[in-house]
Amino acid sequence: MAELARLTAITKSFGGVRALRGVDFDLRSGETHALIGENGAGKSTLMRVLGGEMAPSSGEIRLDGERVDFRNPRAARAHGIAIIHQELALAPDLSVAENIFLGDLSRVISWGALRRRAKELIDALGFDIDPARRVSSLAVAHQQVVEIAKALSRKLKIIVFDEPTAVLSTQDAERLHAIIAKLRADGVGVIYISHRLEEVLSIADRVTVMKDGQVVGTKAASDLTIDEAIRMMVGRPIAALFPEKRPRKIGAARLEARHLRSGRLVRDVSFSVRAGEIVGLGGLVGSGRTEVARVIFGADARESGTIVVNGEEARVRTPKEAVEAGVCLVPEDRKLHGVVIDAPIRVNATMARLSAVVNGLGFLKFGLERQMVTELGASLKLKAAHIDAPVSSLSGGNQQKVVLAKWFHAGGDVIILDEPTRGVDVGAKSEIYGIVLKLAEQGKAVLIISSEHQELFGLCDRVLVMGEGELRGELAPPDYSEENLLSLAFARRTQQTEGA
Amino acid sequence: MTAVTEAVAQEKRRFDFAGFIQRFGTLGIFLALVVAASIWSPSFLTKPNILNVLRQVASGAGIMAVGMLYVILTRGIDLSVGSVASLGCVLSAYFIAFSGYGVATSVALVIVSGAVCGLVTGAFVAYLRLPSFVMSLAMMAIARGLSLIISAGRPIPIGDGGDALADFGSGFFLGLPEPVILMFAVFLAGGVVLNFTRFGRIIKAIGSNEEAVRLSGIAVPRYVLAVYVISGALAAVAGIISTSRTGVGSAQVGVGAELNVIAAVVIGGASLMGGRGGVINTLLGALVMGMIANIMNLAGVPGYHQQVYMGLIIVIAMLIQYSAGSLKR
Questions:
Q1: Does the CB of B276 have a partner CB in chain A at under 8 Å?
Q2: Res B85: pLDDT
Q3: I need a labelling partner for A134 at 20 to 30 A (CA). Which of A140, A428, A466, B300 fits?
Q4: How far is CA A221 from CA A150, A204, A373, A463, B34, in A?
Q5: Beta partners for residue A273, in sequence order
């Protein structure tokens, strides 16, 4: 295999912070080279350097043996390098076709031709998306397809995927893997960043592990096990990601949802979660899991149905009423919905129950607040310079802990967590699992939504499975398996196909 | 707080230039202007002139800037303040001259009227989620129209019944004009509310990320409504001060004032994207605006030219503030 790219002794400093310290990395044509490491290890920074988004402080980049010096992303793109970022860079109000050809719309192109070419690219990827649709109306998985089509619309030699499957269901992730296989067959070099180690080991040829801005090692994927990969990433052995389950006391039902209905994605959903119980809500992305959570939390309007908290019917029409009833939601999109990212940790942590830190006149008791937040931070193992540091200065895992701290402070009895470990590194993941268990041990009712099935199986007492806005069934621990979960998720659809 | 990461520790050791400008940029602009003006014109740093500037700021951008700051912190804008001030000016003269309510009742009624203007704007913005720009633009037209109707387009003298108000307008307390004392009091109260109360914390947070605040179980619309009510009430107060100084209610008061007020807040380093801004810097911003006008008067710059220079100086001040913002990234 020909060598496509070689990065030698790359360093990158931001002020006094050294994000990359002499990194060597190479990519061959037609291979998938995975890049793993905890958040902050320098993976994304390295890719930004390769993509021309940042100039390295020192070191050299060679493409096909020739030294290159990218001044901007456009220069890198001209060399056939495309980066699919975690946060997609699409213009939400433009159509799919316009987005795909955004870079070269300078020529006069007829709309018909533009859409036809867009359709060809998307079809080649095995998806069916109308090129005339507005990007903002697409599911995240499909937006990602648009990004890939955009990369394919130009010369493509190297493509970088930064956590592509974090937002994808298992099914969509598999389709993405099929796309990657196709790209490799065409001789494209694929760099794949992911926190999902199982996935990494199954699709990558080689794996490079980074830690603290340095490369720990590069190995053939076939020579690597998950345990070994984790050991390399964290520099210490992790016995198990999931904390040991101690028997918990399961009490009376704390949350009961009865015949909830809201739009297309919440159709007659009924279930209950009892005190001390951890219940999973599985299914594909877009099956209505997030919508159910938002309806119970009053974030979205409910058309019909009742919500019962601790045996009493709760009037939940707004998040305020939900919080007053004791329902908390750790939302799916941390930065948009979970935290006020520019505000200090302290401000975020007390926001859901400010009444605890104000006097009768509405004046804040800063001393008390500092003390409460410091204690919360310590109990959640929050790693921060100071409780007055802005949340934006924290890693993803610690940002999530701030969201958790907020609900700890609010003290509700029902905790709903929507993708609580998305974009969170391995170490913090394990800590968050520990926090979830602690909540259950305190007698709270916990409902977890996750696209990582192992996470649901590792934590939950039982898993509810959704499909197309309906509850399709329930799995108990003896039946925990990906196959069972997916067959429930697809149940109705299969029947319909058979009937037709 | 178990661990201080290396990155954060190093960050701290470095001098945070952008943060410094954000904090003290307005003070720098203010001091630079003071120095430049006192070199340029010897009469600038005299007591009568300083009092003059303060008095002008108090009845101009000053008091309204506190309300505007609150609105801007929630990521809104209130274009109606100048018109509401004129309504406050006209109404106060009208009530005192024709109603027989007496000064105190009249003043209270006028402040309530201003608050009602803000309530209307705010209700549409907060509950129907209409853009504040458009809603306050509508209120700007309505309030100006009302003050023209009430005054029939003519100045209304407050007459002898308004002596108490006129005394306030020309009176001194602790060596400072009473309207100036009132302005400082409003800024002080504004700062206390913003920095030390639940209300202040929440309106700042709303401007940074409204959805996250809503999903924390906070009734966002109430707070949004409140900032427009405050802005309207303070605009009415500015109008009353104008009446107290001139002794007449005029519908011509406050034409274009909203722009000066917004400029003062923005020179004070507040972000029009919400969530960032402070009371002390806003006061400095208002003083800068007042000083620019004053310096040009002292220097004998013709009125029409003044507007051009005013615009240019605002641009320069903004460049300084925004260079700090872009350095942050």
A1: yes
A2: 96
A3: A466
A4: 29, 6, 43, 32, 68
A5: A255
What is the arithmetic mean of pLDDT over B311-329? 69
User: Chain A partners of B10 at a C-beta cutoff of 8 Å?
Assistant: 15-17
Beta carbons of A194 and A165 less than 8 angstroms apart = yes
Residues in A closer than 8 angstroms to B4, CB to CB, are 385
Q: What is the mean pLDDT of residues A198-218?
A: 90
What count of CB pairs under 8 Å joins A to B?
Answer: 109
Structural domain contains residue B126? yes
Matching residue, tokens 């956590």: A163
- Identify the structural domains of chain A with CATH numbers, from first to last: 3-234 (3.40.50.300), 253-499 (3.40.50.300)
Give domain status of residue B248, yes or no. yes
Task: Please report where in the chains the tokens 């998305």 appear, as a residue.
Answer: A422
Instruction: Closest CB to B197: pick one of A322, A363, A406.
Output: A363
Task: Tell me which H or E stretch contains A274.
Answer: strand A266-274
Do A8 and A68 touch, CB atoms closer than 8 A? Answer: no
Residue keyed to tokens 């003390």: A371
Q: What is the pLDDT of residues A127-175, one digit of tens each?
A: 888 988 998 888 878 888 898 888 888 888 999 998 887 667 777 888 8
C-alpha angle with apex A343: B192 to A297, nearest 5 degrees? 105
Q: What percent of chain B has pLDDT over 90?
A: 53
What are the pLDDT digits (tens) for B104-143? 999 999 999 999 999 999 999 999 999 999 999 999 999 9
Does B329 contact chain A (CB < 8 Å)? no
DSSP string computed for A311-351: TEEE--SSHHHHHHHTEEEE-S-IIIII--TTSBHHHHHHG
Q: A376-397 b/e with 16+ CB inside 10 Å = b?
A: bbeebbbbbbebebbbebbbbb
Interface probe for B, chosen from A12, A320, A380 (most Cβ of B below 10 Å), is A320
Residues of A with CB under 8 A from a CB of B: 15-17, 40, 297, 299, 318-320, 322-324, 329, 331, 336-343, 347, 351-352, 354, 358, 361-364, 374, 377-378, 381-387, 389, 393, 406, 410
Is residue B223 domain-resident? yes
Query: What is the complex's ipTM, to 2 decimals?
Result: 0.84
Assigned token pair, A47 = 């890719």
Number of structural domains (chain B) is: 1
- In this structure, which amino acid lies at residue A355? S
Answer yes or no: are the C-beta atoms of A159 and A183 closer than 8 Å: yes
- CA A58 to CA A21: how far, in whole Å? 9
Alpha-carbon distance A173 to nearest alpha carbon in chain B (angstroms): 29
Backbone angles phi, psi at A130, to 5 degrees: -70, 120
| Chain B stretch 2-31, residues whose beta carbon is closer than 8 A to a beta carbon of chain A | 2-14
Burial of A430 (0-12, 13-18, 19+ CB in 10 A): buried
pLDDT of residue B40: 81
Cα nearest neighbour of B212 on chain A: A337
Nearest to B198 among A331, A354, A393 (CB): A354
Residue B16 belongs to a domain: no
Chain A residues with CB under 8 Å of B126 CB are: none
Percent of chain B with pLDDT strictly greater than 70: 91
- Percent of chain B that is helix, strand, coil (3-state, to 5): 75, 5, 20
User: Which residue range(s) make up the domain with B210?
Assistant: 62-278
By the 10 Å C-beta count (0-12 exposed, 13-18 middle, 19+ buried), A128 is classed as: exposed
CB contact under 8 A, A381 and B219: no
Q: What is the pLDDT of residues B172-219, one digit of tens each?
A: 888 889 999 999 999 999 999 999 999 999 999 999 999 999 999 999
Q: Do B208 and A343 touch (CB under 8 A)?
A: yes
